[in-house]
Amino acid sequence: MPGSSKARNPRPGPHQQRVLEAIGVQVWVPRRASEADVSAPALVSLPTTEPGSVQSPVQVKNVPAAGTDSASCAWAALEAEVATCTRCALHETRTRTVFGTGSHQARWLVIGEAPGADEDLQAEPFVGRAGQLLTEMLRAVGLSREQVFIANILKCRPPENRDPKPEEAKSCENYLLRQIDLIRPGLILAVGRIAAQNLLQVDTPIGKLRGQTHEYGAARIPVVVTYHPAYLLRSPGQKARSWDDLCLARSIVAPV
Ligand code: URA
Fold it and tell me: What domains can you pick out in the chain, each with its CATH number?
């Protein structure tokens, strides 16, 4: 597993600064040049390249799937299968399945934990308050929701938003694997502990998983882990770390 990368960053430009402020990341900017302490670390930091780490931005092109028609047939078949899934007990309590949304050609695949109440009603991932923050976080790196694909470890809501059970994650795993296979993303952004631990098949705490590059599957897709936006809403002080993670992801695979 490649090592971690943490570093100093150039100051964000005016647009980026506005977006960062919108998502609640505080950016320290000295009022006058004379006030600048050149030794003070920037609060918002972009990672630099470290020997041996997967760091330089690469323009990853998605390998086209077997053909547009067969790819769209495969997507339609998969979505229909998910919509009628009864593999685990969650089908008894769900309102709607949440398949995932976004571009089938996305470079970034964002993977969360499981639908919550809003998602269960609207059949779309990350549409509640946490989802709004995720949308802002993506916007901060120049991405719209439509440019990425957003999915979850589970396609159905666990009652009372409890953590997914291992057998539920196992039952749902094949759907996510097939989505990954169809998209062939250049990078996976795992948001939250549950997503990260299930994808990487580890029980390492999220604080140790973030800030470095992991790999997923035989294709060795780079995986960057960051905090779940619901956690960031409760702990806004961690937003700067999440911003670092997004910058790390962007440095590995340019998102568009
Ligand atoms: N939290 C998640 O992890 N996924 C969603 O879709 C919504 C909230």
Answer: 14-32+43-59+68-252 (3.40.470.10)
With a Cβ cut-off of 6 Å, ligand 1 is lined by 112-116, 119, 125-126, 130-131, 152, 192
Pocket test for ligand 1, best of 127, 152, 234 (most atoms within 8 A of CB): 152
- Angle separating helix axes 68-83 and 166-183, nearest 10 degrees: 160
For 115, phi and psi rounded to 5 degrees?
A: -65, 145
pTM: 0.79
Question: pLDDT tens digits, the chain, 256 residues: what are they?
Answer: 333 333 334 455 555 565 566 566 655 443 333 333 322 222 222 232 332 333 333 333 343 454 578 999 999 999 999 999 999 999 999 999 999 999 999 999 999 999 999 999 999 999 999 999 999 999 999 999 999 999 999 999 999 999 999 999 999 999 999 999 999 999 999 999 999 999 999 999 999 999 999 999 999 999 999 999 999 999 999 999 999 999 999 999 988 8
Ligand 1 centre from 174 Cα, in Å?
Answer: 19
Sheet with 149-152, side-by-side order of all strands: 101-102, 149-152, 108-112, 187-191, 221-226, 213-216
